[in-house]
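stage 2 :: seqdesign
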């Protein structure tokens, strides 16, 4: 059964609170196990569908907006290599942008735990290997509605 690790929401507002970069243990994560009454995949599909309906479908650039991105996990120039070269980093940050030829892009960097605004001497950034769209880059992805 699918499992979701997610931030604990505020009891008062049922919203995810802002990150606490000074006291990281305040950023509590919980495990939600999928059940027949509360299927995780359905919740995640709903998130992706809402993103598509509210942001992509209403955009004049809908065919360019990244819905999902694939990053190389192991080997040369991969997420694991980034982590090995910067083992004291705490967060993996995802950035979205538009390159000089108008293509939407997605890339990663590592961020230190104590101050995410601190600059790293030799930062490494990793572009996604391939993103969706085109949807052929994410065949049979059950979270993405084609």
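stage 2 :: out
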């Amino acid at each position: 059964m699918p499992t979701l690790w997610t931030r604990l929401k505020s009891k008062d507002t049922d919203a995810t609170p802002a990150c606490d970069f000074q006291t990281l243990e305040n950023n509590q994560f919980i495990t939600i196990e999928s059940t027949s009454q509360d299927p995780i995949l359905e919740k995640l599909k709903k998130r992706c569908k809402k993103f598509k309906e509210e942001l992509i479908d209403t955009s004049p650039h809908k065919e360019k907006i990244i819905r999902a991105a694939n990053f190389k996990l192991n080997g040369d120039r991969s997420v694991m290599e980034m982590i090995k070269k910067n083992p004291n980093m705490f967060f993996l940050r995802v950035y979205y942008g538009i390159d000089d030829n108008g293509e939407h892009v997605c890339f990663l960097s590592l961020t230190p735990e104590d101050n995410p605004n601190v600059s790293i001497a030799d930062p490494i950034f990793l572009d996604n290997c391939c993103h969706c769209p085109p949807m052929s880059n994410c065949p049979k992805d059950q979270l993405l509605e084609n």
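stage 3 :: structure notes
- The chain has two domains: 1-58, 64-139.
- The chain is about 15% helix and 25% strand.
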